[in-house]
Design a protein that fits this description.
Strand order of the largest sheet: 2-1-3-4-5-6
Mean pLDDT: 91
Low-confidence stretches: none
Distance between the termini: 21 Å
Number of domains: 1
Structural class: alpha/beta
Largest sheet: 6 strands, mixed
Strand content: 15-25%
């Protein structure tokens, strides 16, 4: 899958996904400091699923009419260490293949998914 990891996403999680063969672009190295609107626009242009810890993307997603090739996965999990986050991210991503076209919220013990408009 093609992902765009937001600037707040840990390197360990980015590398773990890349190790599994996913195509992961990372804002922290490619365009640090850009606005959330530009991040979302980039996900749209590159047909990537955005990985983030930033709750603001929920509202942005519904206002911007993301195409079905995009999606957003918001992680709302405790982050004791970046390695623990990487393990959780990998296990969640591998559960499904239908992330595109949805706004998903990953919590400690559940995943909520809504189709994007």
């Amino acid at each position: 899958m093609r992902f765009l990891a937001n600037e707040n996403f840990p390197l360990d999680a980015v590398e773990a996904l890349r190790t599994l063969g996913h195509d992961v672009a990372w804002i922290r190295t490619e365009a640090p400091g850009i606005s959330d609107v530009v991040v979302l626009s980039r996900a749209q242009q590159d047909s990537r699923i955005l990985l983030t810890f930033d709750k603001d993307f929920g509202e942005l997603a519904y206002r911007s009419n993301l195409p079905a090739t995009c999606g957003i996965i918001l992680f709302r999990i405790a982050t004791p260490s970046s390695m623990e986050v990487a393990r959780k991210v990998v296990s969640v991503i591998e559960l499904r293949s239908d992330w595109a076209g949805a706004f998903s919220v990953v919590e400690a013990h559940r995943i909520r998914t809504r189709p994007l408009p």
